[in-house]
Amino acid sequence: MGSNNKSRRKKNHKLKSFIFYLIFVLIFTGVTAPLIIFHGPFTNVKKTIVDASMTTLSHQWIAKLFLSDEEIQKIRSEDTVQIVQPGNNNLIKFINAHNNSIERYNISNGIKFTGYVLIIKDPARVKVGYSNKLGTQGELTSQIAQDNGAVAAINAGGFSDSSSTNTQWTGTGGKPTGIIMSNGSIKFNDIKDPDKKVDITAITKKAQLIVGPHSLNDLEKLGVTDAVSFGPALVVNGKGTIKSGDGGWGIAPRTAIGQRSDGAIILLVIDGRTTKSLGASLKDVQNIMLKYGAYNASNLDGGSSSTMYFDGGIINNPCNALGERSVPSAFIVNP
Amino acid sequence: MKKKFKNLIICIVVSLIIQISGLLYLNNIFLASDATVKSQEVVDSINKDSVSKVSVPSKATNINVSYDASYVSYYSDDRLYVVNTITGERDVISSSNGVKVSFYKWLPDRNRMLIVETENRNLSLSYYDVAKSQKSKVTDILMVNSTSKVKDIEAAPLINVIYLKVSNGAKFDSIYWVNVMNSRKKIITKTQNLGNIEVVPHKDKMLYEDLDNNKVYATGATDALSLFGSTKSCLLGIDNNDQVYIGDVDSSNSIDRIYFGELNSRWQSITLNTPVSKADIFVTASGKIYTKDSSKGTVTEIQTGKETAYKGIFLQLYNDGIVSLNNRNLVKTPFN
Fold first, then answer.
1. What are the beta bridge partners of residue B268?
2. For B252-288, how does the pLDDT look when each residue is reduced to its tens digit (9 = 90+)?
3. Could you give the count of Cα atoms lying within 13 Å of A258 in the half-sphere of its Cβ?
4. Does the distance separating the beta carbons of A173 and B39 come in below 8 Å?
5. Is residue A289 within 8 Å of A117, Cβ to Cβ?
6. Which of chain B's residues have a Cβ under 8 Å away from the Cβ of A105?
7. Which residues contact A95 (CB under 8 A, 6 or more apart)?
8. Where are the domains of chain A?
9. Does A122 touch chain B (CB under 8 A)?
10. Nearest partner of B11 among A299, A214, A31, judged by Cα
11. CA of A218 to nearest chain B CA: how many angstroms apart?
12. What's the ipTM?
């Protein structure tokens, strides 16, 4: 009995000291981890945390707790999305063979994200669709597609994200920002100055994709028939615009559109905010666009709006609990 | 003492090794933008044939169809089943380690449901995407006591807001609000004895019945919705254009008059020829009011008087018609 007691006491003692060391490790890690993250050599980790916290309103304290405003500024400015003025004369030239096929790909880089790509061989099929209740509410990307008899669609332009009672994140997708142009007519426009250049993703009457900053006057000169306001341009004239850093928007679900030099349109959606797919940076999106041969490409509204419709259903996994979100505009593919 | 010191050093080294290797992985592999992207072409799959009959087992309980009646769901043997009414394909919703589904509700405009599982001291809310057979957790709500149960869920997909009604015992209900960022808060209501709840689709506002006084309130406002001449009222529904439908309850607990209109605007009203029980009145998303007569097996649209006959036992309305069970077979009858 005595020896039994002794060994139990010994066991107890061992357990106690194990717990002591465990707590010590936890506290030590808790204290040193922020120091290593914010002041160590791991620039990608530091940048991602700073970008992710600074692009929200309520979590900026995470970055501000450990770094001075100047340091944050410096980290944020390391990302340069180069603004390339493509000029209005060197538009992409291609002969449209009106090939009626669509190729579909599932993409994955293993752990960080999964995504979906559609290649529309005939760019003349790609147009801008919009919510038929603009002003009061958006529509689901799939609804916009079905209303127009489209075979495929991705969400397009942005909107202000609050409802009439002004609670945040409760936007109905009914209040777009910028411009929405469809089939040659302007459906929505809050840009007052016709010479002011803002990020635009547009399609001309010759089915050329226009990306980057353009004014309303530019759009007219270029013969644009369909347009939404969103950016930034990720590929201009075959070259990536993000020269250093990851684009500065953190990782999230993404939507993007591009055009190859043979005219084919690339539609891309990347899932995010789930354990299976966290999301992609703008740089990731640029890399994918370049890999698929994009000559011009632009980022579109991402996050919980990211949706891809194809062949009668949603093929990506929108990150909201309630599923696909209402949006003001979409790029649609006519049959 | 020396041993303790040595152990502490070991702990520090272990902590640093774990941190640095983890961060090295994140920094150089996970967050590196030049990681390779694999791509795989997807080729069309063959469409499945549609079946003519979908039957529901006799022991099935809580039978509900989705908004367009493409799917029917029910509990059987403590499991939740979802059946595609076009292909007949059946899916069972899996829960981890014997956790039981304690509540589910279809969304008003898409084939997706919200599911509540009771687990330890939590009411765990998940969504289930039927087309992809994918279940994913949204949030947890701590149970106030062991009897806490979700009694209703109202979701507004347009503004991405979910309201949950949790009953913690008799006359002790709580309302929780969950938004698109999965953040959650408790909603203050005038009473804890709550009846039907509904959400205004374009506004982040919930309406609820106060069962203590038989009045209808909106969140954020302290006064009951004031209806001229009505002493007892109940909440019938809210349509896609934010029109609210309120029933005037007469002395025999039936509804003899229906008021409708947007919040803070003038109410219009319709008088019913014969008073109808609340359970037999339905307001659709498109703003039509139907009454059901079980003895005749008909559903009548009040505004036009159009009558639609259904076969068997009435189940519920869907977007385009009535769903009923005839000899355990699901029957869809479009409105006349």
1. B260
2. 999 999 999 998 888 999 999 899 999 999 999 999 9
3. 33
4. no
5. no
6. 39-42
7. A263
8. 2-78, 81-333
9. no
10. A31
11. 33
12. 0.77
